[in-house]
Every structure is written in structure tokens, then in C-alpha cells.
Specification:
Layout lengths: L1 H19 L7 H40 L8 H12 L4 H19 L2 H20 L9 H21 L7 H11 L4 H19 L2 H23 L4 E7 L3 H11 L5 E7 L8 E11 L3 H11 L4 E7 L14
Antiparallel strand pairs: 1-3, 1-4, 2-3
Length: about 325
């Protein structure tokens, strides 16, 4: 199987080069990097497809196993579709596509056509799963429905986002309005969901709207865990005159990699700038307390800047024993 894929990638890479350089012979120096690039694209495409597939089936389970049979709603485009399904006779799967369609058209202009096409695929697949796949109804307890329905729906949304698509188009609208207005994406999503829950309270009942808020909160928190990771990382910048002692403490005692880069101090009585090394390290929130303790042992006046890191790739993030 691997041999077949490798041969196929070589053929595709060769064809691309031939189309790009018409009439010019293709040599190995050009072909090898082209195959390597194509292999990366193929690997990422397979990984994204797996993420989207898991996301779709998870969201389908949350909808058909919890929310739909018990007349519950959620926030976002899914919530709008659920609400319309309650007040019309239109099939939920069709509503899901129709409600998301304007958002996907907006996505093709604001984010990219590839993203929009993957989102169309994900939403269409979710509509088919909801229509054709039979999930068992798990419970009739309203609290469990709200919490776990939101959990599996949020898991589906988060996995789809990791696959480079969305199954809830209101995220796209939030990004677009966030760029146009002086509002954050979170603010826009909150305003959209307030409208949805208000309509839900009027059309259905206040109790349903309150459970819908709980469902939304459960889904939103699950999305955060899936997209950002359960183990949240913090980037820490340390500015100190005892930078060499701090570097040795981080690498020898805490056994963590760090980056040291050159900076200039801008404040001095004579008005001149001066050279100063700056240390940057990434740790988990659980390690922050220990890091602060060790820094204070060396320099109680060290200037420390901290910020949440949303995504990481490569490098030595986890603690490893020194070689």
C-alpha cells in the first residue's frame, strides 16, 4: 500500500513539474522536493479528513442521541436549524445546509474557497448522518441531555475545526463582523446566541431556553478543550540581569528548553540603551507556580511577562531528561 502511494505521489509530482515547465526535462533535484511537498499535502489531507469524519459522527450522536428526540436547541447555526425544525415541517438535515449556506458563501470570500468547500463537505456529511444513521436515544433526563448533548456536539465542532472546516457557520460570521466592528469574535457569538435563546424562550419555553444555554456552554467549553488542548500552555518571557543563572536553572533544574535572544534595555539615568539577554520559555499552567518559585530564588525583581499560547508544534515542549 505504501509503495503504491509513493509511486502515485511521484507520478503526480512529475506531472505537475511537466505542466509547469513545458518541454524541459525533469531532473531528480527538482523531483525530490516536489514529492516531499506532495507527501506533506497528502498526509495533512488524510489527517483532516479523519478529524472531520470523527467530528461529524460525534456531532450526529449529540444531535440524534440527545437533542433532537427531546426537543432541545443549541446556539449558533445548529441552534437556528433546531429551532426552525420545531416550528416548521422541514427536515433538520436540509435546514442545517440551508442555514449554513449564507455563512459558507461568506467564508469563501473572507477565509478562502478551500475552507468553504471543506465546510460544505462537512455540513453535507453531517446532514446525511443525521438523516440516515440511527443513533440510540441515551436518556430523557434534561440535565444529562443538556450537558452531554452539548459535549458531543462541541466535540464534533472542535474536531471539524481541527480538520480545517466548520459545521457551524456562525463562527465565520463572527470572524467577519469582528474585523468590521470593534467587537471580539466572542462578543459577536454571544450576541447571536442571545437572539437565538430569546426566540427559543418565546417560541418554546423559558425552561427550554435555559437548558439551551447550558447546552451551549457545555459545547463551547468542549470546543475550547479540543481546539486548544486540555493542557493549556503559557509563554513566559523573563527579563533579568541574572539571565545566565536563570537559564541554567531552567535547563538543569527544571530540565526545560528555553530560548535566549538579545534585547536592549531602554531605561537608564544617562539616557543610553544597554544590552540585555531575554529568556523565553513555554510551560503548562500547572508548572507556573514552581517556575515563579525558582525565579524568585534567583531574582525577586525579575520582570516576567506571561501569555496564553493557543497552538504549538515542534520543539521540546514536554520535560525531558538531559542527555
Amino acid at each position: 500500500m505504501n509503495s503504491f502511494i509513493s509511486k502515485l505521489l511521484v507520478r503526480v509530482a512529475r506531472k505537475r513539474l511537466e505542466d509547469k515547465n513545458t518541454g524541459v526535462p525533469i531532473n531528480t533535484e527538482e523531483l525530490v522536493p516536489a514529492v516531499r511537498k506532495l507527501k506533506v499535502e497528502f498526509t495533512h489531507a488524510v489527517k483532516e479528513f479523519i478529524y472531520i469524519t470523527i467530528g461529524v459522527f460525534s456531532a450526529g450522536f449529540g444531535l440524534k442521541g440527545f437533542l433532537l428526540p427531546n426537543k432541545f436547541i443549541d446556539g449558533g447555526a445548529t441552534g437556528i436549524s433546531l429551532l426552525l425544525e420545531h416550528i416548521t415541517t422541514v427536515n433538520f438535515g436540509l435546514l442545517l445546509i440551508l442555514v449554513n449556506l449564507p455563512f459558507l458563501l461568506l467564508a469563501s470570500k473572507t477565509i478562502g474557497v478551500k475552507f468553504a468547500l471543506k465546510s460544505v463537505l462537512a455540513i453535507s456529511l453531517l446532514a446525511l448522518v443525521v438523516h440516515f444513521v440511527e443513533y440510540p436515544i441515551i436518556t430523557e433526563d434534561k440535565l444529562l441531555i443538556a450537558v452531554f448533548g452539548g459535549f458531543f456536539l462541541g466535540l464534533g465542532i472542535g474536531m471539524s475545526m481541527r480538520g480545517g472546516s466548520v459545521i457551524d457557520g456562525t463562527e465565520v460570521l463572527a470572524i467577519y463582523l469582528g474585523r468590521k466592528l470593534s467587537l471580539t469574535i466572542g462578543d459577536v457569538l454571544l450576541l447571536i446566541n442571545i437572539v437565538i435563546f430569546s426566540v427559543g424562550a418565546y417560541v418554546l419555553s423559558i425552561e427550554v431556553a435555559l437548558y439551551a444555554i447550558l447546552t451551549y456552554l457545555s459545547a463551547a467549553k468542549t470546543v475550547d478543550f479540543v481546539v486548544d488542548g486540555v493542557e493549556e500552555y503559557v509563554g513566559v518571557t523573563i527579563i533579568s540581569n541574572k539571565h545566565e543563572e536563570l537559564r541554567l536553572m531552567l535547563t538543569n533544574k527544571l530540565q526545560r528548553a528555553c530560548t535566549v535572544y538579545s534585547g536592549k534595555g531602554g531605561y537608564r539615568k544617562d539616557g543610553q540603551s544597554f544590552d540585555k539577554d531575554i529568556i523565553y520559555i513555554i510551560v503548562t499552567r500547572l508548572e507556573l507556580a514552581k517556575l515563579h518559585t525558582e525565579i524568585e530564588k534567583i531574582d525577586a525583581n525579575a520582570f516576567i511577562i506571561m501569555g496564553v499560547v493557543k497552538d504549538l508544534k515542534g520543539g521540546m515542549i514536554k520535560k525531558k531528561p538531559l542527555k
